[in-house]
Amino acid sequence: MPTEPISTSSLTSKPLASESESPIEMTAVIATPSFSPLYQQIKVLLLQSLQSGEWKSGAAIPSEQDLALRYKVSQGTVRKAIDELATENLLVRRQGKGTFVATHAEHHVQYRFLKLFPDNGDPNSEGPAQRRIIDCKRSRASADIAKKLDLRSAEPVLQVRRVLSFASKPTILEDLWLPAAPFKGLTAERLGNYDGPMYALFETEFGVRMVRAEEKIRAVLPDSEQALLLGVSSTTPLLSVERIAYTYNDVPMEMRRGLYLTDTHYYRNELH
Amino acid sequence: MPTEPISTSSLTSKPLASESESPIEMTAVIATPSFSPLYQQIKVLLLQSLQSGEWKSGAAIPSEQDLALRYKVSQGTVRKAIDELATENLLVRRQGKGTFVATHAEHHVQYRFLKLFPDNGDPNSEGPAQRRIIDCKRSRASADIAKKLDLRSAEPVLQVRRVLSFASKPTILEDLWLPAAPFKGLTAERLGNYDGPMYALFETEFGVRMVRAEEKIRAVLPDSEQALLLGVSSTTPLLSVERIAYTYNDVPMEMRRGLYLTDTHYYRNELH
DNA sequence: CAGTGGTCTAGACCACTGG
DNA sequence: CAGTGGTCTAGACCACTGC
To answer: What is the pLDDT of residue B158?
Structure first.
């Protein structure tokens, strides 16, 4: 019984024909996938349940046994699907307790996507960052922003500017662009009042889970306004960190440009 | 038969007592591991074979069946050990062919650890980098270098300076520090004559495999000598990329400081 | 104690590679 | 074709959590 279509005993999802749909691979060009292992199909189904909101951020998903019964496969197959979602940080396994939907809240190392650390090793010595919202306004997407957010030009977007300080010293100036539709109702007040990572607010208030991001990093000089906000001169080199953050299915949901002051902090990266 | 010591049927490695040795975890403080799964112990044995040179760079290691027989465990257990080494990029699986020792040579995307890409998407459009060795000399480790390379102060080190150009434009200035002992015999000539990634030369000529690295990134201004070598003014902001590269067992084997020109290139990073 | 994820096994079969 | 890694199953037992 090699890779038979799954009779999805729930919801309305069409059974994935075994020799058809894409197994999400990056081999590109010519070669047809032509074969999708069962656990990959299960992975797609789990992804759908995550995306549809069937399972909330931070909540437990059904046990491996339950899922195995639901999809009519062995526990080992469900396990392999969950394993991959766990290494992608979409799910979190906790032995003895269950498997949970990953979240940007509660994440004791808050700011999961922020790679800036103080020179004196300990990220906690400075305490939490002080956040100051400079601006939050509606505008229309420039050609550049539209392209990066998969929008049409001039579509409405929300634009946020804020400064993060560590030990009372302004260190990061961020400009954000968000598609207006999913974030309807976001204001400077709600941003200012919320105590926690911005991505956690996005999850709980707007149901948008940031799952993955890409950053392009350059060395730049600030313009006079940026220099003022960071309290540095216009000749101080800064790290420009341009991030595009994605939800499920690689849908871009945020474009963010950060200017990092790196005299007492550094951007950390690990290579394998 | 829960996690019984392995009667290592080869070499001289002592059998790892089941309730003793560290499973290489980062939980730190207080908590004793107290339990090491079989596949983790297999992983350690595989690591030893890699480190000892029993399996050469780029060569195939024994089949999963063979390893299962050698260690007297099931194929699935060997599989899980290899899986982890593969995700850490120490091994490369190739269906139908075997499992191979990862190498910096042949890696069609040469420069595995270089995250700098041209703005116009395609990394191949510029062709291979032009390399120019500026200097290669023996010296003694400063306190800073010694600390980063786990050496004693003033221990002999090799120091290399080179410039990488893309499309004939100088783009990267690198300073390297290597512990002298493992790299005895390295000269500017050998570096200049070698056609391929430097880490590939380290593998084939000195048996040193770089397995992992950490980078600290900052925005800086070049001093006059650096500016000259890159052909820019002293007010051009540059990316400072300080890398420490490690072999097996987290032994540091290289400290490298790169200055990247980021007007037509960017440093790319992926977040999960 | 029951329920969860984690480990280990044994065996069958599939997909891919190369001679 | 034989040999390799890849998938899938079924079952047993272990480690951890919380009641």
So the answer is: 98
Collect all residues of chain A within an 8 Å Cβ-Cβ radius of residue B237. 219-221, 237-238
Question: Could you give the angle at which helices A38-51 and A75-87 cross, rounded to 10 degrees?
Answer: 60
Task: Compute the distance between CA of residue A165 and CA of residue A169 in angstroms, rounded to an integer.
Answer: 5
Token pair 């260190």 is at which residue?
A171
Closest CA to A71 of A19, A17, A10: A10
Q: Which domains does chain B have, with CATH numbers?
A: 1-102 (1.10.10.10), 109-267 (3.40.1410.10)
Top residue of B95, B104, B218, B262 to mutate, by most chain A CBs within 10 Å, is: B218
Which residue, among B174, B178, B176, has the nearest Cα to B240 in the 3D structure?
Answer: B174
pLDDT of residue B213 exceeding 90: yes
Which parts of chain A sit beneath pLDDT 70?
1-33
- Cβ contacts of A209 within 8 Å, gap of 6 or more: A50, A57, A102, A103, A104, A202, A203, A247, A248
Which helix (H) or strand (E) covers residue A173, if one does? strand A169-179
Which bases along strand D come within 7 Å of a protein CB atom?
3-11, 13-18
Q: How far apart are CA B1 and CA A189, in angstroms?
A: 61
CA distance B150 to A272: 21
Residue showing tokens 């112990």: B41
The answer to whether the Cβ–Cβ distance between A219 and B214 falls below 8 Å is: no
> Residue B145 — φ and ψ, nearest 5°?
-60, -45
Q: CB B187: neighbour CB atoms within 10 A?
A: 12
pLDDT at B84: 98
Distance, CA of A127 to C1' of C17, in Å: 56
Q: In a 3-state reduction of DSSP, which class is residue A168?
A: coil
